[in-house]
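pinned: reference chain
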Amino acid sequence: SGGFIIMYLNSVNLTSRSIGTITVSTQPLRIGLSNDTFWSPFNGRVSNTQIYNRALTADEVLQNYNAQRARFGL
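pinned: its structure tokens
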């Protein structure tokens, strides 16, 4: 019924907000870019993206971060 997004950077919660209804469509998923002129493109790099069908706990986010961070010299 309603979507919610939480953004993390290096395992730190940056922001969280409601994104309204999430709908299924045939359009491609865009990460860091939108066709909507209201949103500006993301000016940076997205190195690792995962989409889950449930909210992860803070411990799960930290576990994922620790499992991948050596790849990026962190």
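why pinned: The CA atoms of residues 3 and 20 lie 5 Å apart. Strands lie at 3-9, 12-20.
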